[in-house]
Specification:
Elements (H helix, E strand, L loop, with lengths): L1 H21 L4 H7 L4 H10 L16 H13 L1 H6 L3 H9 L8 H14 L7 E2 L2 H9 L9 E2 L6 H5 L4 H10 L5
Antiparallel strand pairs: 1-2
Helix pairs in contact: 2-3, 3-4, 3-7, 6-7, 8-10
């Protein structure tokens, strides 16, 4: 039985290392970070676009029209977002916005882009869409939760010095490999 656990941890470690080595650049995040004002950064973050106006794959199903409406709503809370000092504050503010077709994943990704612009990062793993599926497949304690603390994860994530946003990304992108 212990051999099975060791093999599972070794497989997980290898999957993480492959993921970290193959991680692609997020052109939508980079475009957001290039903005010279917070105002333009939150608009780009909400629209999920890069320099060529291409929508991030995560947000394509939301549709350009909904993302445009979403950005108009975010502008209304710009002052509150600018005052936010934690990722939770940013995320909670973004989640208050109601626009048809905007998903939980869009709330997280938009919050993440805005947080990055402000140099504020999540300290927990947010469970949504693919991340939740990946966490369930790894038998992580997700029942009734919308986020996980680092202490609830296998030690390998800490050993590899992964930040919560990297773990979130890994769980989502590798959900079908567990």
């Amino acid at each position: 039985m212990e051999t099975d656990n060791i093999e599972k941890l070794e497989k997980l470690e290898n999957q993480i290392k492959v993921f970290l080595n193959e991680k692609k650049i997020d052109s939508q995040l980079n475009y957001c970070l290039k903005q010279t004002t917070f105002h333009s950064a939150i608009i780009i973050a909400a629209k999920a676009i890069n320099e060529n106006k291409k929508i991030h794959p995560h947000q394509r199903k939301n549709g350009r029209k909904s993302l445009d409406l979403f950005s108009l709503e975010i502008i209304k809370i710009e002052e509150e977002l600018n005052k936010a000092v934690t990722f939770d504050e940013i995320f909670d503010l973004i989640c208050l916005i109601k626009v048809d077709r905007i998903s939980k994943l869009a709330f997280y990704d938009t919050s993440y882009r805005i947080g990055c612009y402000k140099n504020i990062f999540p300290d927990k793993i947010y469970l949504h869409s693919g991340t939740l599926i990946g966490a369930k497949r790894l038998n992580l304690p997700v029942k009734g939760k919308n986020k996980l603390d680092l202490s609830e994860l296998p030690i390998i994530f800490k050993t590899l010095n992964m930040a919560p946003y990297q773990i979130e990304d890994f769980l989502c992108h590798c959900k079908d490999k567990f």
